[in-house]
Amino acid sequence: MTRTTQQLTFEEYLSYDDGTDVRCEWVDGELYPMTPASWGHKSIMRFLFLQFYLEIQRQGLGWEPYEDGLGVRTMQQRVRLPDLCIFQERPALARNEAAILTTPPLLVVEIVSPESISRDYRTKRSEYATFEITEYWIVDPLAQKVSILQLVEGFYDVREFTGQERIISPLFAELMLTANQILQGV
């Protein structure tokens, strides 16, 4: 999918509607259409959302997990649409306002697809660190690994997990999942 060359303000981005269901990230005034997710991508997203939700409930954390569609305004001229997002408390927004966070969530998850490799590993990594998102997961079904990035002094430290390795998440220390369970979405 190609980006638009038309420059939009943030307000125009919020009200943009081209008559399709294509979701777009907003980067430096331009729209970047997101490729529709594969069934495997959706399975991973649904599985992780459910695991996060259950763990949050079990521990009584009061955090909010959201999947697919919640925007994160990482910079003045950028809105990203992570696959999953967890924030500490629900923002006080009107129901008809655009679902875009302007404060850093606790955790974001990006599930890699062929066209998002560089964006997920490089661009979003630096944006999310600058925006001070505490934990960033990169779930990569192409490389068969789960990377958990923890923000330390403004930069991400990375741990990679494969196969039957139990993932270790600073925010979800008691979560009992292997890389394979996440990558298979079951």
Descriptive report:
The structure is a single chain. With 186 residues, the protein is an alpha+beta fold. The chain has one domain (37-184): tt1808, chain A, CATH 3.90.1570. Helices cover 25% and strands 28% of the residues. The protein contains four helices and eleven strands. It has helices at residues 10-15, 39-59, 117-130, 179-184, and strands at 24-27, 30-33, 64-67, 71-75, 78-80, 84-87, 100-101, 107-111, 135-140, 145-152, 155-161. The strands form two sheets. The protein has a six-stranded mixed sheet with strand order 3-6-8-9-10-11, sandwiched between helices. A five-stranded mixed sheet has the order 2-1-5-4-7, covered by helices on one side.
What's the SSE pattern?
HEEHEEEEEEHEEEH
The oligomeric status of these chains comes to: single chain
CATH superfamily: tt1808, chain A
Give the DSSP E fraction (strand runs of 2 or more residues).
25-35%
Q: Enter the CATH topology name.
A: tt1808, chain A
Share of helix, binned:
25-40%
Q: How would the global form be characterised?
A: globular
Tell me the name of the CATH class.
Alpha Beta
- Helices, by number, come to 4
- Got a strand count? 11
- Overall average residue pLDDT: 90
Low-confidence runs (pLDDT<50, min 5 residues)?
A: none
Q: CA-to-CA gap between the ends? A: 29 Å
The largest sheet is: 6 strands, mixed
Radius of gyration: 16 Å
Strand order of the largest sheet: 3-6-8-9-10-11
